[in-house]
Amino acid sequence: MQTIGVLTSGGDAPGMNAAIRAVVRMGIYRGLKVVGIRKGYSGLLAGDFVDMDLGSVADIIHRGGTILQTARCEAFKTEEGQRHAVEKLTARGIEGVVVIGGDGSFRGAVELAKRGIATVGVPGTIDNDIAGTDTTIGFDTAVNTVIEAVDKIRDTATSHERTFLVEVMGRRAGDIALSAGLACGAETILIPEEEYSIDEIVERLERSFKRGKRHSILVVAEGVGSAMAIADKIRERIGWEMRVTVLGHIQRGGSPTAADRVLASRMGAMAVELLLQGHSAKMVGIQNRRLVAIDMEDAVARPHRPDLGLFDLARILAI
Ligand code: ADP
């Protein structure tokens, strides 16, 4: 293998730049030519390629977002699109591609692999919703962003004796809500993986009110439903004021944490090694602090399960 490509696809995540840097630098260190593919699969179809050198990834390890930019691309989902993508890669002499993204991006990478382009996936998504890896690049940063915001909200909640419901990202996975909720001492955490009952939430709020607590923080993953509607239902029952904060896209940005930079550097470098060893349709994962190469098709087929032990622990500690 002489030339590899690297792209970022799907939703951006802090640490993607650190992963690009690792792919480029490890690739060059191993004597490869590295081509950056801009804007994910849409840039691939458009032939939006840029030769990468050591300097192209200087000064990016600490930056959020992705210098290669990212996109979603419907045309790539079709057979014709995938054939066209292979033609573009072959014309440029690209034999292997590192795909940094989420499970949708990996489904695309599996298709490329079936058509003879070696692909390795690096999980980059704040949601942590990929099976086969304990954590994904960007998750730790997003959790820390939520913690910083909720700590500030708690100051007001305490001063004004108010109950706040904070909606965090996680359409399909409750991982951000779980980790951030536990770390913030949230009184209640709602995640898509667990049923909730308004009765129980109200009971918990009333119980803590009785022991003199006049403020509470509830953390809700967006996949549970509309935070406003949930707040309305609780408000109707408890009869006291309740504020809703939707954190939104601030959770996707920002400088990556140390954990994300280290993870991205390790995973990006490993992806290059896997391509050089002749692997394809593999995803780099981390399990019990060790990097692993797992079957990409298997990873996207399996459902991700969050650590529900955190859910139980948070409930006990917020008694
Ligand atoms: P993420 O990678 O963050 O999960 P998406 O699900 O939006 O984000 O996927 C990113 C891109 O990957 C899509 O816009 C599309 O180009 C490609 N993709 C997603 N699913 C498939 C699929 N089943 N087959 C081929 N390409 C896919």
TrEMBL record:
Mg(2+) binds at D103. Its main location: cytoplasm. PROSITE patterns: PHOSPHOFRUCTOKINASE (PS00433). Pathway: Carbohydrate degradation; glycolysis; D-glyceraldehyde 3-phosphate and glycerone phosphate from D-glucose: step 3/4. Homotetramer. The keyword Transport does not apply. Its cofactor is Mg(2+). This is ATP-dependent 6-phosphofructokinase. It is found in: Cytoplasm. It catalyses: beta-D-fructose 6-phosphate + ATP = beta-D-fructose 1,6-bisphosphate + ADP + H(+). Catalyzes the phosphorylation of D-fructose 6-phosphate to fructose 1,6-bisphosphate by ATP, the first committing step of glycolysis. Gene3D superfamilies: 3.40.50.450, Phosphofructokinase domain. It comes from Kyrpidia tusciae (strain DSM 2912 / NBRC 15312 / T2) (Bacillus tusciae). ATP binds at G11, R72, C73, G102, D103, G104, S105. The keyword Metal-binding applies. Residues 4-275 form the Phosphofructokinase domain. Its EC number is 2.7.1.11.
